[in-house]
Amino acid sequence: MSPAADSSSNTTLALNSLATLTPPSSARTWMTAPHPTLPIVATASSDKTVRVYSLTSFTLLSSIGGGHKRSVRTCAWKPHVVGESVLATGSFDASAGVWRKWERQSKDSFVDDDAMEQDMGDDGEEDDEWRFSVILDGHESEIKSVAWSAGGQFLATCSRDKSVWIWEEMEDDNFETIAVLQEHEGDVKCVAWHPSEDMLASASYDDTIRLYREDLDDWTAVAVLSGHDATVWGVDWEVVEVSPLTVGEDEETAGPAELKAQRAKLLQERVAAGPRLVSCSDDLTVRVWRRVPRDTAAAAQGKNDMPSILRNNSIEEEWVEEARLPKRHERAIYSVAWSKQTGLIASTGSDGKIVIYKEQWLAKSDPSMEADVAANGQNEGDAPAPSASSSTALTEWVVVAEAEGAHDVFEINHVIWATRRDKDRRTEDEEILVSTGDDGEVKVWTLG
User: Residue 1 domain-assigned?
Assistant: First the structure.
């Protein structure tokens, strides 16, 4: 493996404070979830509520409470719902809940503050109240994370009880438990669904990441990602289509034809492998993992004259650590987010720092790549061996922005990319970063 050097840095941008959502919570806030289509976010709070804020006025629209008996640790919006917003919540009371609210939407699914205010009565109360439609019981301890699958069919929950549950919505307010996964040996901190496949990732106190798929009507672990030396707090998926890396004739760093060919091949390999996964940990590292395509792994086995143990009907997958991002945090890294618009990665944690990373081409091919190719007996046109160095030799991750004390002296529990839509449609949608901290505040940042 050839992780990015800790000294890599190219800080050229600044994180600018755009707004603090008001009023803040009087208790610790854990995380914030942007709505998939509306200019609103939901924030999970220790005061047993979820607070819904506007991203146009930066003010509180509603406070959802009464469903949980303890701190609301996590929340997630269901995707692909028309005319209604559906929010899943997870609490320290060991239960998950599903909330529903009818929304007034325009033809382009854009709701501005004026429309939202029309949904309020004269007394300031909402005409269409949030409805606590169903409670999901089963976990024996605190729920730490909830996540909807990309298609919205499945809901995953994870808990301090070391288990991951998968629920399937059969119809409105009717959920069936289809899997109870007990692969981890410690508290499960986070779950995240693949952006285009029904594959789930979970991160745990046992220092590992595990990936699950359905196989013959039964969900099973298909890979274990080991390497972190302490608790893995968070994971997030890449969207391949938004990679900042391109190979073009007008690119300043394109270099000789041979180098351009190597870069083009790398991009093709990434499309074949699918989205990568980023993780963050108590070991102060942020790591990127990639899947080794089955044909690539089988070809590598054959070149070493070793019998392939991969069967066409095997559901197991091989994942390798591709890179470690430049080390910038001094304390536990709680959250990591991969931008779906720019391919940038953001991290934050106990040290109150927010760091932004960018992947870029190396000016020249790394000599170690040629040595790696030779060691694996590869010739031009051969499938690459399943070695992380063959990828990272062409790229590096650098720090492009960094903000210390982003929530003053308080820890930051979560960071997420979101889109701020211009209410009057006079400017293009703007990507923003949202941070959530122990101070009860949710802050909005722009990068520039």
Answer: no
CA–CA separation, 262 and 415 (whole Å): 34
Which tens digit of pLDDT belongs to each residue from 77-93? Answer: 999 999 999 999 999 99
Domain with 142 in it: what CATH number?
2.130.10.10
Residue 238 lies in a domain: yes
Domain count, the chain: 1
Q: Report the C-alpha gap between 269 and 150 in whole angstroms.
A: 23
| Distance between CA atoms of residues 249 and 251, nearest Å | 6
The range of the structural domain enclosing residue 98 comes to 15-447
Find out whether 285 and 324 touch, Cβ atoms under 8 Å.
yes
Around Cβ 125, how many Cβ atoms within 10 Å? Answer: 9
Helix (H, G, I), strand (E, B) or coil at 148: strand
Cα–Cα distance for residue pair 1/392, rounded to 1 Å: 8
What's the pTM value of the predicted model, to 2 decimals? 0.86
> For 259-278, what is each residue's pLDDT tens digit?
888 899 999 999 999 999 99
* Domain membership flag for residue 363: yes
Residue 163 belongs to some domain of the structure = yes
Both structure tokens of 270: 């990434």
